[in-house]
Structures are given as C-alpha cells and as structure tokens.
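Worked problem 6 (solution included).
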Amino acid sequence: MAAPGGKVTMDRTLRRLASTVLPILLILATAWVSRYLHVLDFGLYEDDLTIVPRAAAMSGSELTAYVSGYIAHLYGHGRPLSDSLIYLFSWLGWRLGGLAWMYLFGFAFVGLNNILIYALAYRVAGARVALLAGLAFAVYPADTTQAFLTHSLGLQPALSLALLSIHAYLSNRRWAGYLLAAVVLFTYETAFGLIAAAPLLAPGAWDRARLRRLLLHGMALAVILAAVLGVRIAIADDRVGGVPFPWIFLTPLVHMVEGPLVSLGMFVLRPATAVGKNAMDGWLITIAAFAILAGSLLLSGRPDDGLSADDLRSIGGLKPPGRPWWRGWRERWTSLPEALRGRVRLGAAGMAMLVLAYPLTYTVRAYAIDGRDTRVHFAAAAGAALVIAVLAASLWDALRAWGKGRLGALLIAGEAALLIGFGQAIQRDYQAGWVSQQRFWSNLVTQIPDARDGTVVLVEPGPLGDVTQIGANSWNLPRVLELLYVFPEAWKTPPRVVRLQPDWREHILSGEGPLSLNWESVLSPESLWGEIEGKDVILFLGEDGGLVRQSGPMDIAGQMTSLMTTERRGEPPYPHRLLYDLLIRKTLPD
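Solution. The predicted structure is:
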C-alpha cells in the first residue's frame, strides 16, 4: 500500500507538470492555427523556388559537399548557416514526406522560439506573464512571413540562437552565450541585437554592479560584432560594405524609431483588419479560438498568481511627495513586491529587445506592414511579445483588483482570437499564391514549344495572380524554367521568363534598336538586364483574364517590332526536373 505522502508528492508533480506542459501546448496550438492550419495547401514562393528544388534533388553526398563548401567560403552574404539550414531541412523533408515535412520542420523552429520566449518570461515574471508572452509571440502580427520556408528554416533559427544566448547568460554560462551570439551573425544578423538586453533580465538590485555588467556585456558583443563584420567586409559582402555615408549610421537610428512603433501598432491595427476582411471560415476559427483561449485564461494560474491590489497600490510609493524621483530610488525599488520587480525587468528588457531588433535592418524599410518585406520585424517579435505580455498582465491584474478579472481574461482572449483570424487571411494568400503559380505555369509551358537558347519570354503582370502577403509569379520568374526542364548543356543562355512592369511599353524601346530590359520595363534581378532582339522574344499579353501569345510584328509605342512566332502548341520537348511535379498541373479547377 502506497504511503499517503507519496501520493501527495505524485499529485504535486503531476500538477506542476500540467501547469507547465498545458500552457506550452496551448501556445504551440495557437501558433499552428495562426500560421500553419492550411499548410497542406502551401507551396513554394520567391527564394523557395530557387533553393528548395535544388536541395531536394541532391544526393546525400552532394548535399554534404555543397553545405561544407558554402560554410567554408562564407557564401550567402557572409551568413552561410541560413541557406545551409534551408538546404539541409529541404533535403530531409523531401525524403520524409515532401513539402508538408519541410513545413513541419519550419514550424519546429517557430515552435521552439515560442517555447524559449515562454521560458524566458517564466524565469523572470512567473507563469501568468509567461503564458501571455507565448501567446503574443504566437500571434505576432507585424511579421507575416513566419511560414515562408526560406524564413522559417533560415531566419527563425537565428532567433532561436539569440534566445538561447540570453538563457545561457542568465544561467551564468556566459562563454556559451557569447559563442551562440557569434553564430547568430553567421545565420541572420538582425537577431543579434536582442542579446544585448540580457543583463536587464537578471535578478537583483538596479545598482552600479548591474550597470557595470551591462557595459561589459555590451563591450563583449561589440567586439564579436566588429570581428564578424570585418570578416564579411573582407569577403566583399555588399550588404555591409556598400551602405553609403551617412546612411550607414542614420538608417539604424531611423529604423530603431519606426520599427518598434509598427511592431506594437500592428497589435492594434490587425484585429481591425481581421474584422474587415475575414471570410466565413476565418470567423469560425476566430470564434472557436476565442472560446478556447477565454476558458484557458480563466482557468490558468492560482488565485494569487499575479499582482494583488496591495501590490498595485505600492506603485504609488515610488515617488514620495516632495522628493525628486532620483532620490532613494534603490530603496523604493527593493521595497516593491518581487512579482512587480520581475515585470518591470521583463518590460524594460522587452523594450530594449524591441528597439535593438532594428539597427542591422539595412536592406528593408522598417515601416513595412505587408508582404515579404515584413521580415524586417521578425527579430522584434521577441521584444514585442514581452512588452505586450507585461501590459496585458498588468491590465488583467488591475481589472481583477476592481473585481473585473473575468473581463480582463475575455479582453485578452478576444485580442488573441482576432489576431488568429488575421493569420487566416495570411494563410489564404499563401494558398492563393501557390494556386496562381500552378495555373500560370501550366498555361504558359503549353505555348512555348519553340523556346530555345537565348529566348526571353516576356509576360504582362495583370493575369499573374498577385496576392498581398507573399510573392507569387514575381521577380523570381526567370529562374523557374531551368528548374522545370533539363535543357541541353550546350546552351549558353537557357530560356527564361521575365515579368513586365505595368508601364513597360513606355520604357522597353530605346530608339529603333532592340528591346531594352531594365528596372523600368521588367521586374527581375539586375543581372538579367540588357538589350535583346525581338526575334528572340516571346511576348504574352493579358487578355480576358488569361495570357495570350502575340505573333507576327507588333506595334510597341509606335514602332513595329518582330517577335518569335510558332504554329505549334505544346510543351518544350525536354526531360522534366523535380519542380515540374510540384508546379505543373494538367487539369485545374475553375
């Protein structure tokens, strides 16, 4: 017969386990529903189309050699680990189960970051704030690219390393933390700044000793940053050495102001977006999420978990009447309840992490709110989640002190549910973007049987099926044909498809000479710009919602231009590559 004491101990262990595991499961489920619920209908977009099919087609030895060389030579703008991880998990995912497994690996990194944020808030401010931080991170609305494979497999690991570095610092494993910080810079550098806030999270007084630790920590990170940037400049990384003066200094300052405002502002704007644009299925998911989250929040934590009315009233003692705020602040700080001090530390660190997520975001505007450019906010998710969690927990406690605790839980659940609804709108764009690519390529390849060495296929943008939150049929079009077909090795310039700008007719001719491909006439990488004769051009115009190939001489801006003509229909007569099976559909529903 078991001793009563043993049963009590077992019950406590199970309750403790449930109080930790159940919130994490709720957070992960929220992240999944918000960004991955319709993952089986997702495809490949932009950079995915270049990297993923190549990686999936490699043998194990080819992958090993490629990744080893990539890291050894510091390719990928001096951050080789990002692309290497994309290659590795694309290769592995394809062999385990295709695109679905690749996305599952991507979610593993996103989910890991949710857990690390939860654990960070838990060790500083307790279970209630930790749950709110995890939920805020799971529905973070400023970055709409979490599910994008290039980002989930290439950028999210950098955030994982940065958060692990902070955890290592707080666990007095400083050298391990600094090693992880250096690795961040070889993965994706914008997450590096978060690590500077680590000393703010440590317990203890706000005294000269903390200031000294903060300065020493900053100096160590500055040395690491200078060393790694020196290496990247040495290998001619134009993203580092190509920024002109004075913007190399002004851009970080501007972004550190703009970025946090957008990052926090999206928690206000996006619920309104969800209300205005959600479809019926999105509303059903939003309502179900509200019910589950409200119930979970009402049942979460102990009655004394959080700040009491006395704790809240103690804030008034921070500035005694008749005394300047800087006099005796240490004594007043130590007199505050530990729960309140933990929240202040977490909120201060969160604001610092939010601001420090932007100094290294040189290539994208910090006020981006839609599409792939919102990656500029990806590292800010950690700081924003901590700030929002502290604000939400404090509001909840204030309402509870006034006898309105249930209202606080309902308000928080409603905000999170609406942001989950916004996540459904993002996922609809991912679904529609993939379908538009399949439709476009299935239609196009049946009309270019005569594509040959040097052929350029120009396509008007109207019927390409653009969506808001991810790039479909955009700048990456020129790379796709070579991933669909095995062209003859003797060809020097395999045929490529290029998207025309909306006003291309006004800019594609330079005098009476050949067609001019430049930033005003086409949307493509700069390496493909130049002049091309009309006899090497296949032109598709948008008519009645579809693409129609033009034949014979054509009047372009008043000049008759000859184009490639054909009397046949059918696909190019070449063997297929791996991307063909993913992208080309013979029959598509209307």
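Discussion: The longest strand covers residues 537-543.
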